[in-house]
Design goal:
Layout lengths: L11 H20 L9 H9 L6 H8 L15 H13 L4 H8 L1 H32 L9 H28 L4 H11 L2 H14 L4 H23 L1 E8 L3 E3 L2 E2 L3 E8 L6 H10 L1 H9 L2 H8 L6 H22 L2 H10 L11 H36 L7 H46 L1
Antiparallel strand pairs: 1-4, 2-3
Helix pairs in contact: 1-7, 1-8, 4-6, 5-6, 6-7, 7-8, 8-17, 10-16, 10-17, 11-14, 12-13, 14-16, 15-16, 16-17
């Protein structure tokens, strides 16, 4: 397919999916600009811009698309649903009953329902925490009290549940993964304001043009490397032997492969590492304890300790999360049940050990690359005094979601071409068979 863009709206089914997805995303972005009643948006934005740097609120605001700093009705964003999903995903290896439900279709539907219930609970608690947090800021709430708290809980919980429903609708009726696309467009929306800030800094002279060219070149190289690592995989060859179907018929032996991605954990190691490392700064901001503030200075984004500890945590969580989402024993058992095997490796435990060894080896370069992507933009921003940052977390999310969405669109177009080929080639195929018989 040389240029699939002109064909996007020529396929009726794909056209409906794309239009529905754009409509849902437009609704989401509109709601992300409607302020919550009773909150002074300017006071909240000033706090997050100054004292809120390097805290959990800054990370949360990234996934909420700036809705948290603007105190919108969608301030909670998609994070409650993601948190609930991660809870059940991490609970699988701990609780066998949940792990069994994750493999069964009925169990998956029940877990999806439980995830929704937990999302509502998280929305209520986070909305109440947001109300308490807003009341503590100077001039942020005009009329604090029980009435404001209940109104905020009702508004933000409703917004969080609606965002969850919107993401599920995109997944079912649109194109791509709805939850991922909501985060994707929340991050993309920041490109224009950050670009305007860069142009203003270039105009005022606080940023030189050669430095800007160097940073842009580095960004291009990082994006290219991120794309390469995201799609890179180690292919383990698998042999499927011939099977007897009966009456002397046998299937042909097949050769396939198991793709093990170099970055199987995706962006989760960076999120986990950042969530842990900014806890001291968050606690110090609200506690007011002197020694906590002094301790939090060691984990400032300009500190060497921050870089070293972040790198160690990212590598650790890369292995930890990969071990949770990928089970070599289950994969080896499935290959054994199908009669398939890896050439030169005995089925069963030996296959599981071989896959685990390969996965351990390829996870290390993936973890090192994650560390590089997460920390290099920060180092460049501090060294060159850039007025904007292109965080590794946001970059990995944007690249991963974009590649996945493009792949789904291409699958729809290829399926359409295949159907058209079968319909158009039916008569010709029939004619050729007649001529052969003659």
């Amino acid at each position: 397919m040389s240029n699939p863009i002109p064909n996007l709206f020529k396929v009726p089914e794909l056209k409906e999916k794309l239009l529905f997805t754009f409509l849902c995303l437009a609704i989401y972005r509109i709601g992300a600009h409607i302020a919550t009643p009773g909150v002074n948006v300017d006071a909240l934005a000033d706090f997050l811009r100054n004292a809120g740097q390097g805290t959990l609120f800054q990370l949360y605001d990234l996934f909420a698309g700036g809705g948290f700093s603007r105190a919108t009705v969608f301030a909670l964003g998609i994070m409650p649903y993601i948190s609930a999903s991660i809870v059940f995903q991490l609970a699988g290896p701990v609780f066998p009953i949940i792990e069994k439900m994750q493999r069964d279709d009925d169990g998956k539907r029940k877990l999806t329902q439980w995830t929704r219930y937990l999302t509502v609970v998280l929305c209520i608690f986070q909305a109440y925490g947001f109300a308490i947090f807003s009341e503590q800021l100077p001039n942020a709430v005009a009329h604090p009290g029980l009435g404001f708290r209940m109104t905020t809980v009702l508004t933000l919980t409703t917004g969080g549940v609606f965002v969850m429903w919107l993401g599920e609708q995109i997944t079912e009726r649109g194109i791509g993964n709805g939850m991922s696309l909501l985060i994707f467009f929340s991050i993309i929306e920041r490109i224009l304001p950050e670009t305007l800030r860069t142009v203003e800094a270039l105009r005022t002279g606080t940023l030189s043009f050669p430095v800007l060219l160097i940073v842009l070149l580095m960004m291009i190289l990082i994006v290219a490397g991120t794309v390469a690592i995201t799609v890179a995989a180690r292919r383990i060859p698998v042999q499927i032997p011939r099977k007897v179907l009966g009456r002397g018929r046998m299937t042909e032996a097949q050769k396939t492969f198991i793709p093990l991605r170099i970055n199987s954990a995706g962006v989760m190691p960076i999120i986990f590492a950042q969530s842990l490392i900014i806890v001291p700064g968050t606690v110090a901001t609200f506690s007011g304890v002197a020694w906590l503030k002094q301790f939090a200075e060691y984990f400032n984004t300009t500190s060497v300790w921050y870089v070293v500890s972040s790198a160690a945590l990212i590598v650790f969580f890369a292995y930890f999360y990969t071990s949770i989402i990928f089970n070599p024993v289950d994969l080896a058992e499935n290959l054994k049940k199908q009669g398939a095997f890896i050439p030169g490796v005995k089925p069963g435990a030996a296959t599981a050990d071989y896959i685990d060894t390969v996965l351990t080896r390829i996870t290390l370069p993936g973890a090192i690359f994650l560390t590089f992507v997460a920390l290099l933009p920060m180092v460049v921003s501090n060294t060159l005094n850039m007025p904007f940052g292109f965080g590794g977390t946001a970059l990995l999310i944007v690249v991963g979601v974009a590649l996945d969405t493009v792949q789904q669109i291409q699958q729809h177009l290829l399926l359409r071409q295949y159907d058209g080929f079968m319909k158009g080639g039916g008569a010709g195929a029939g004619t050729s068979r007649v001529r052969f018989r003659r």
